[in-house]
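Possible regression after last week's pipeline update?

I re-ran a chain I had predicted before the update to compare outputs. Posting the input and the new output here so someone can diff against the archived version. Not blocking, just want to make sure nothing changed silently.
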Amino acid sequence: MKWLQVILLSAVAILLSNCATLLKIPNGNSAPQMGEKTNLQFKIKKLPPPKEKIVVGVYKFRDQTGQYKPTENGSSFSTAIPQGITSILIKALEDSDWFIPIERENVSNLLNERQIIRTTKQEYAQSNNKNNNQPLPPLLFAGVLLEGGVISYDTNVMTGGLGARYFGIGASTQYRQDRISVYLRAVSTLNGKILKSVYVDKTILSTTVNGSIFKYVDTERLLESEIGITQNEPVQIAVKQAIEKAVQALIIDGIQDKIWEPDPKYTKDTEAAINAIKEEQKQVDFLAEKAKYYDVKGKHYSVFGMAEANAIQGDYESPVLTPGVRFGVKYHLNRFWNINLSSAFMTLENKEIIRKRYQATDLNIEYLMLPANKFSPFIFAGGGFIANREPLKFKYQLGGGFEYFIKDFSFRLQGQYDLGFDDDWDDFVNGDLNDRALRIGFGISYHFRKKQ
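New output (post-update):
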């Protein structure tokens, strides 16, 4: 047992040394630094310059959700969204170099200060008997007002995790996804017309990874160790990215609709920016079409084919993994549920003992867990039979797997466990358990969906 202790203690030492590097435990006060820059901030700065900068005013661009920060026991008194997002928008407008932002959020402070300046200058002129009091220059007025705000903050849009433990050694990972939505619109001060309105979604991801060891290395010695790390995407950075994306989209959409003009010297840069945003829109439209397909109430059929690997679990030892094929048809009741009927050709074999070919027929009801996603897990259960030249052998089955969708096609990886009502699939009756079979398959489906 000494060599085992040495190996385990060495593994723990390596794990803890790597843990110190991974976790980067704070060990003192950090110096202040400039604010973090995002990739969208660089994209905004690379936009082609305007023919003439636009004077814009932002009176109010704030959190319109009124939502408080969620906690395990409900919610706290802290808001989920930062309250100074007008400042974030003005910074994004300034970075774009397309706009001249003017102070409107606290315009009363500006007017009060100008009044103080006028009063002070008048008093100074009177005390010195001077009449050459120069008036203050006029304030800039906005040709365009920017309105909108953060209109939604949805928590736990998607959660999940994965973990395993074997003989006291295990690891797990979990994630949570939130989402915010930002609307931004440009309003003409000339006639009040809404020139353009854009909408941006941004997900906020939180992940955690844990590993642990809980094991007796001897009768009186217990080894226990844990390691973990959690990463939470800052909400302020997510809001910043969403607003910067909205500003970028507003500029490019305004160019396409000829609301404002870029500098004609940068025609190629303008075309590249427009093409890039069009490619993004194509991806959004594709996902919308896919979601539209799954949200339809109309029913539809699909057909599928699958290559399988089969292994009997009977009374003999040394089962052999053998190939097989399966074909079938599905009737989709709605976006979650479907009924499928399939026929498979399979071989059940024990090494140098028995080899029998069967035709299996399965009738299942299946549940697709995340139908609006490209990648979704599913589970199914049902009944059927396997046939040879002998009488039918009835069974029931259950299984699950993952499916990936590409337009009208989908690819799936699944595992199925067949449980028999008989103990003679291998021509040998022994023990209290009936014969079983494990089937693993990979296949492709084609959906005859209704065009919307």
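Follow-up from reviewer: compared with the archived run. The CA atoms of residues 48 and 270 lie 6 Å apart. Marking as no regression found.
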